[in-house]
Amino acid sequence: DGRAWGEVAADFQRDDAAAIFDADGPRWHFLTRPRGGSKTTDVAGIALAWLASEAPAGARAYVVAVDSDQAALLIDAASGLVDRTPALASAVDVKALKIVAKSGATVEVLSADGGSAFGLRPHLLVLDEYSQWPSTRNARRLWTALLSSAHKVKGSRLVILTSAGEPGHPSYRVLQEAR
Fold it and tell me: Considering Cα of 116, then 41, then 12, then 131, what sign does the dihedral take?
């Protein structure tokens, strides 16, 4: 509605963001929210905040959405946040599926139905709506590639932000391990 995120964010949103960026806290997060809980917009904000405040020059971050439509929503949300935040507008450029900082650091949006993620070296890895990913061999392979990539950069962060899933979905097992 044109207001800045900080003006409208609820306490749980601020708490989640603070936990993700806490230098002394855990580096991996599994956050669940209901439908309408601002997951996609908050993921966009997390990516932008990382680019603006922490990303080393040339660093890479990836946001993996359930599909290309969800990825497009995330870029739209990031674009809106940038439009309403003059300091961000001068610091980043929002492209079709990538956000680029003046330092060369990037946040790239990938879809879970996309190609292999082996070889990524993420400083930040965000999985949007993980409990909605298909329970297919390709999705399991993608999860393995992403999880193994999170160890490649010292101090990297992994954030899973999703709605509740089914107990039979692979995300439930990940949630149990996170707990």
Answer: negative
Exposure of 101 by Cβ count < 10 A (0-12 exposed, 13-18 middle, 19+ buried)? buried
| C-alpha to C-alpha distance for 33 and 105, rounded to whole angstroms | 29
Which has the closest alpha carbon to 112: 71, 158, 73, 66? 66
Residues 6+ apart with CB under 8 A from 164: 32, 34, 131
The mean pLDDT of the chain is 87
Phi and psi at residue 104, in whole multiples of 5°? 95, -10
- Please, are residues 108 and 62 in contact by the beta-carbon 8 Å criterion? yes
Rounded to two decimals, the pTM is 0.87
How far apart, in whole angstroms, are the C-alpha atoms of residue 112 and residue 138?
A: 9
Dump pLDDT digits (tens) for 2-13: 777 888 889 999
